[in-house]
Amino acid sequence: MAKHSRVDAVFHAGYKSDRALYLAYPMKNGLPDQTKFVKRQRYFLYKLQGSNVYSKEGTVFNVDGEVGAVLDYAVVSQLKDQGLKVEEVDSAAKGLSLLSKGRLDAWVGLESINDLLLSEAPDFKHIVKEALPLSDNSSYLAFSKTFYAQHPSLAHSFWQHIEHLTSHDSYSRLIKKYKFN
Hints:
The chain contains six helices and twelve strands. By secondary structure, the chain is α+β, with helices and mostly antiparallel strands. Strands 1, 2, 5, 8, 9, 10, 11 and 12 form an eight-stranded mixed beta sheet that branches. It comes from Vibrio galatheae. This is Solute-binding protein family 3/N-terminal domain-containing protein.
């Protein structure tokens, strides 16, 4: 939708160079401005207990079959660039279900979503999370290039307010309170 300017903005947009062709991100020195993130996104590798699959410094090892991830998430291209066969599904719950049934070798997903699902579903008790994140990214409020071209000062105003909000102590307390880490 954003690609064809059918929406003005996308919330929680992870930065990818191909997305930057049609989305305007808050930038600084040619890179996304880390002070204007909406949310920190940490992707972790999830696997069945006893599995030999593991990750180290952003690379996944010992995969014989497929790794699952949510459709169009930023981590998908990272996995494919490693030569992994990636099964893209429409939700984390579906992916964890496939993993729990042994239909995937591993699952890569956002910590905040997957940890909550694991804590609430007894069917997932044999799924474990790697200790270190596969990737640690920020997500942003990104505007369509069309909207940004017409309203650059409004976009910058949003990004300034986001920076003010996320740098405030109350933001950190809310993140911890609602388990959005």
